[in-house]
Amino acid sequence: MMQESTPLTVLMLFFVEIVALLVVETNRYYHQFLDNCEDGPSPQRDVTEAKMFAFLALTLQMGHTVQDRLEDYWTKIEQLCTPFFGQTMACARYCHILRFLHFMDNNRNGDETAGDRLWKIQDLFEIIRTNFSKFYNPSKHLAVDEVIVKFKGRVLFKQ
User: Which of 44, 9, 68 is nearest to 77 (CA)?
Assistant: First the structure.
C-alpha cells in the first residue's frame, strides 16, 4: 500500500539536504570569522537545522508581510507588530544567521573553481539537480514557460 504524501513531506524531500548544507557552511564561515578576529564579538551558539528552517520560514514570510526595515518585523509598536517573527526567533539571532549565511567553504576556491562565476553555489546547485532528477518525474503534458519580459541587467550566462 502506498503512503499518501503531504505537501510538507514532498517539500522536505528537496530541502533537508539543502538545509544541512546551509547549517554546516554557515557555522564554518562564522568560526572562520571568529578565528580571524582578535577582539571579535562574544561567540554565538552554532546554527541548528531547526533554527535554519525557522530562518527560512521567516525569510519567506517577509515576502508576504512587507515592512520598511528588517528590524520592523520585530517591532513592538502595536500598529506594526507581527508577533510571528518575535515568537519564532529573536531579531539578533536572525541577523546573525543572515550575516553568516553561506553555501560553500571559502577555502575551496582553488583550481577547480577557476573561471566558474557560480562556484559559491555549486554544491547547492548539485543538490538541487540531483534531487530533481531523483524525485521529479514530469508528466507527458508539460508546459515550459519562458520569460517574456525584457531583462536589462548584466549577466554573463544565458537562460
Answer: 68
